[in-house]
Amino acid sequence: MYSTPKPPKLSDSNRRIFDSNASSLRLYQVWKGSNKFCFGGRLIFGPDVRSIFLTLILILTPVILFCGFVSQSLIKQFNHDLGNLIVAICALFTLYVVFLLFLTSGRDPGIIPRNSHPPEIDEDGSTISTDWLGSQNGGHTIPPTRDVIVNGMIVKVKYCQTCMLYRPPRCSHCSICNNCVERFDHHCPWVGQCIGKRNYRFFFMFVSSTTMLCIYVFCFCWVNICNIMHKQRTSLWKALMKSPVSGILILYTFVTVWFVGGLTAFHLYLIITNQTTYENFRYRYHRKMNPYNRGSLRNIVEIFFSKIPSSKNNFRAKVKVDSSAIFAMSLGPSRSPEVPKRTSNVDMGKRQAVAAEDFEDIQSQLDSVGGLQRCRTQPRHASWDLRNDWENTSDMQMLAAEFGMEHGISEREKVRGRQ
Description:
Elements: H1 12-24, E1 36-38, E2 43-45, H2 51-77, H3 80-105, H4 130-135, E3 145-150, E4 153-160, E5 165-166, E6 172-174, E7 179-181, E8 186-188, E9 193-195, H5 200-232, H6 236-242, H7 244-273, H8 277-282, H9 296-304, H10 323-331, H11 339-348, H12 356-375, H13 380-392, H14 394-403, H15 405-418
Antiparallel strand pairs: 1-2, 3-4, 4-5, 6-7, 8-9
């Protein structure tokens, strides 16, 4: 009579609808991150996937101008076969760069699946950070850090409140994609994706290949200008006036190569020293020993010649979603049942255990309330208000569920009704 009201029952037709929807859902459809999926979950992008189109424009525009205008002069200047080869190499090189761009942006960078429940604390506490043990006063149930030994050195790993897991070493949570990424390097806005363990190799190849493409176009535009100056015996300025596209491409590639070339050199340094961009800016390993550095040669082998681990997420896998959960989501947060929230709070460890003397105090308060009702110091409808307040108080409901007080209340009500 006084139990928590149950959610409304579904008709057979509505239940079949929810069950059919639940059976057809795949992991990418209920993914909690901010990623964008294409082709039924086969490709995963970051939330800023539109930036890829800007990157494509910046790559394809100079190549199209080079092949459409500058290549004609190069074909006439060189042997036709050699001139056509120069243009073909540029076109194929561009396709290779675009392929690396999508290979970097459209794959799982190393996302670590989230936990549905927080991890259990080790009883011995051997892996818990000593800093937390020294400052712990009972307010936190999950230590924020743990100590992990990497190559003989102690490394602190943090607990992610969003993913409810202890991040592995070199893992970090991307605030843009809302995912924990293994060996997180950075979130690149030019490719619209996080750069992590599974796509860092392709990212470096993309950046370095773009640098070589800029140098390729830059050099052959200068060859075209020098050829005009030599044949027509004119000055540099007049040669640029005769082939303005070559001048524009020289200026464009000169500016671009400083950006992508500098980025290539920086990441080459990171590869040799076995660092990530995040670690380089945050920890400054050149001031202290890097626990991940195994020597230049081994570091290069680890990046370019090691096997890329398979994804830990099967985004096309079918997932089971409870029909009641779907129905609760359709009702909205204001009409959703309170029981799942209480269960979640208990699972999260946000409520501490109540001592036996606290339970006695609460029961004595209940007895006093019952005494007021028996003496009829308040109208009869006030007892219903008290019972409603008791039922709608989440803390009281949790205590009743834990100590079995609901049964005791019902027994007292039966005695009260007999009186």
